[in-house]
Write a structure and sequence with these properties.
The structure is a single chain. By secondary structure, this protein is α/β, with parallel strands linked by helices. The protein is 40% helix and 16% strand. It has helices at 4-11, 17-32, 36-44, 76-80, 125-142, 165-176, 201-219, 235-248, 269-275, 286-299, 315-323, 333-338, 342-351, and strands spanning 52-54, 57-59, 63-65, 86-92, 105-108, 113-116, 149-154, 182-186, 225-229, 252-255, 279-282, 305-309, 328-331. The strands form three sheets. Strands 3-13-12-10-9-8-7-4 form an eight-stranded parallel β-sheet. A three-stranded antiparallel β-sheet has the order 5-6-11, with no helix packed on it. A two-stranded antiparallel ribbon has the order 1-2. Helix 11 (315-323) links the parallel strand 12 and strand 13 (328-331). Helix 6 (165-176) packs parallel to helix 7 (201-219) and helix 11 crosses helix 13. It is globular and about 50 Å long. The chain starts with a helix and ends in a 14-residue tail after the last helix.
């Protein structure tokens, strides 16, 4: 029996969604600083059989936390203590920015979904890099063997014109690539004006080219580079992105970001409209996210990493993504509804002999 849903209803459901996130994340970080931290790590450590080789790295489990939860690398190690095989921080922009006006995060409880228009609120690449360096040192001490993987998701500063977008991304790439196990170029958030225009192959090619050059030079090694795309792209556009990934020899794709559609919701339309614009995430995104995954895999062979995200709730969802061709799987929205032991429950179920993960696109040790 899960206790957290009752706790959520009593402690968080009445609270502003962004405030609830801040409080909840604060409690996770607080627990990490107590004697409970080492005990928690032992309790949530994924089974060895879940290890995945991807991006030239060893992931403790195929399941990780998507970008958006730990925007500023303020609690990366604490989140890893909960059993996530990787944590993707960000989205980080070249310059610090406050994001969009509040309120900007809304729960759709009936649909187990969220609408957000956060707008890449973060402390900027330089400050996040400082913080991430300290987090990395702490993570290395805590996980002397196979440690969870650190991904970094970078985006465009809102005030920067599209014509100057490449230079803006390069600020983040230079500051953060040396600390990243892999890097994600986010061109798919609906909450930065004009950003999704960068998903066109004509704009995307030079952006990815320059980010890759800058990242590898700054880190003095190859930093695996992925691009994050929107579910709202047409199938033809997705095929074009896949061809670009092949042509450029990119390491992978993260699919998908939030959607601007409001299809298939059980909540009444008037309430949804009152929440305003923003990206929808959670269970309503599941079907399209899986469709995009399958389409990408038809165009990309097993050497290209696909990280599937969108509508992932439990181990069955993770298994379904792996069976459909995902190399790795991420979650986010369900974390808010399922509580701190969500990743541990998924890992435990994945490792159970009666539910062994079958994934031909990754090699396990």
């Amino acid at each position: 029996m899960k206790i957290y849903p009752t706790f959520f209803r009593l402690a968080f459901s009445w609270m502003d969604a962004e405030l609830a996130h801040t409080v909840g994340f604060g409690l996770i970080k607080l627990a990490d600083r107590t004697p409970a931290g080492p005990l928690l790590r032992r309790f949530t450590r994924p089974s060895r059989e879940l290890r995945v080789q991807a991006l030239g790295l060893t992931f403790p489990t195929p399941f990780g936390l998507a970008a958006g939860f730990d925007k500023n690398a303020s609690g990366t190690g604490a989140l890893m203590d909960l059993g996530f095989g990787h944590v993707e921080i960000g989205t980080v922009t070249g310059r610090a920015q406050p994001g969009n006006p509040k309120p900007r995060l809304f729960r759709l409880l009936e649909d187990r979904a969220l609408i957000n228009r956060m707008g890449f609120n973060n402390d900027g690449a330089a400050k996040v890099a400082e913080r991430l360096a300290k987090q990395r040192a702490r993570i290395d001490r805590r996980f002397p063997g196979t440690r969870p993987i650190v991904g970094v998701n970078i985006g465009k500063t809102k005030k920067v014109d599209l014509k100057d977008a490449i230079a803006d991304y390069l600020i983040s790439a230079e500051d953060l690539a040396p600390l990243a196990d892999y890097l994600v170029v986010n061109v798919s958030s609906p909450n930065t004006p004009g950003l999704r225009l960068l998903q066109s192959v004509k704009s995307l090619r030079p952006l990815l080219h320059h980010v890759r050059q800058t990242a590898d030079a700054a880190a003095r090694r190859h930093v695996p580079l992925l691009v994050k795309i929107a579910p709202d792209l047409s199938d033809d556009d997705i095929a074009e992105v896949a061809q670009l990934v092949k042509d450029m020899g990119l390491d992978g794709v993260v699919a998908t970001n939030t959607t601007i559609t409001r299809d298939g919701l059980s909540i009444d339309a008037e309430t949804v409209t009152s929440m305003g614009v923003g990206g929808l995430s959670g269970e309503p995104l599941k079907e399209r996210s899986i469709d995009v995954l399958k389409l990408l895999r038809t165009h990309l062979d097993a050497s290209v990493c696909i990280i599937s995200v969108g509508g992932v709730r439990d181990a069955a969802d993770v298994r379904a993504r792996l069976d459909a061709g995902a190399t790795l799987v991420q979650g986010y929205t369900a974390f808010l509804y399922e509580g701190p032991f969500w990743a541990h429950r998924i890992n435990k179920s994945l490792a159970h002999p009666s539910s062994t993960v079958q994934n031909t696109h990754a090699t396990r040790r």
